[in-house]
Model the fold of this input.
Amino acid sequence: MTARSRLFAVAVGLIALSGLAASASAQTTKRPLADWLGPNLAEPIGIIWTEPSNPTWAFIDYFGRNASIVGLNLGSTFEGQVTEKARKDGRADVRVVMHAHKVLSYAYDTSIAAYVFGHLASQVATGSDPALADVLLTVDFVNVAPGAPLPSLARLSVFPSPDYTLNKLSLVASADGTLRAAYGVPDGTPGRLQLTQRGLYDVSGLPNNGQDNNFPAEHINITVTGD
Done:
């Protein structure tokens, strides 16, 4: 083989490889974050986060739905991306990474049946101060097909379906607001809520129904941040 023919063969090989790479990358597409926000804003079912042996549960309005229902404008923002990759079985692997800023949060202590941090959206609408959270939410799941409507987070994590399968869920949130008197401090004391939830649903033997044994990491912490 001459030098010229060898160069030609190399060039053909590079073109073929680049075509394969383009074909592979073409299977992964980006979808607008609105495709994820839409079904979650329409979802009437919220998720309450808990920690084993901790009587406190926390609620984060990470899609802004509760605020919007009562007409609150908290300056909330939502950023992130939705990526989708076609599977050989016709379904799609979907990853959502979403950052929510300045979204409503509050916490409730079941041992004393009282709210201990933040205020409900209805209370904020009538003048109470909001506890605002910054949130990082990451969700990995299998959807029924590329381009198909996305299920809400509540549907994914609580209601099994042949149309979707939740694999992983991670939520990290930090909120600044005020503590309630039921916490054991003067009402209105500055406080902070920190929340970490990491769920693994694609582990053999674990049920895909949102039970605590799906979550190897669950953490809810409320602290005083000022006098």
